[in-house]
Amino acid sequence: MMIIGTSHIAASSIKEIRHKLDAFKPDIVCLELDPARLDSLLYKTKEKLRLRDMRDIGIKGYLFALIAMYAQNRLGRIVGIQPGSDMLEAYKLAKGRKLHIELIDQPIGITLKRLSRSITWKEKWHFAADIIKGLFGKGMAIDLTKVPEDKIIGHLMAILKQRYPGIYTTLVTERNSYMARKVIKLLESNKGNKVAVIVGAAHVKGIRKIIYDHFGIF
């Protein structure tokens, strides 16, 4: 098994995915996508939220999704890369090589619904304060064209966990568990096959630990 960490808006991710798949030659490729997200990437349909979606995912999940979509699209325009290009490239490469493809991410509707329940008032105040800091203060310098180094990812995840424990649990911990369980099931039912797991870099450490703990690998 190989786990490949990517940045959803970094051009270097696309090159790295191609290089690592060529070198590893997997039989199965797992992607951090759900069917709805894959469809939006394949058919270039913009992900839209309607007011009626608020009823299903909750007002906090709805507002968070709007902000996240705006931020990711804005950063994508800055670096000239469409958000999700890494996963789309991986899908096309796997499809072109006739490899088995597994979509392992939790459905976005479930994630947003759980997010709406988990965000506390304290986290909302932190969020407002951090937006103001981002607008008027100096933040950490990150090269958006490259996948962040492990040290930077670790630092950012530590901040997220401290200031936004509810968000961290929903977006990172729970999804790590969901994706790892799907990979474990796949590995157990496809022994002898080489599996490549392609996920955002922030998920690599957590998913690897769950999988290695399950199989007793250290």
Provide keyphrases for this structure.
4-stranded parallel sheet, 4 strands, globular, 9% strand, 218 residues, alpha/beta
Structure explained in plain terms:
This protein has one domain (2-215). It is 65% helix and 9% strand. The protein is built from 10 helices and 4 strands, in the order βαβααααβααααβα. The chain has a 4-stranded parallel beta sheet. Helix 6 runs antiparallel to helix 9 and helix 9 (165-189) crosses helix 10. The protein is globular.
Spell out the blueprint of helices and strands.
Elements (H helix, E strand, L loop, with lengths): L1 E5 L4 H14 L3 E4 L3 H8 L10 H5 L1 H21 L5 H12 L3 E4 L4 H11 L2 H16 L13 H14 L1 H25 L5 E6 H15 L3
Parallel strand pairs: 1-4, 2-3, 2-4
Estimate the mean pLDDT confidence.
79
Structural class: alpha/beta
H/E topology pattern: EHEHHHHEHHHHEH
Taking the sheet with the most strands, its summary is: 4 strands, parallel
Strand order of the largest sheet: 1-4-2-3
Give the number of helices.
10
Structural Rg? 18 Å
Domains, number: 1
Q: What is the number of E strands? A: 4
Strand content: 5-15%
Residues in helices, as a percent range: 55-70%
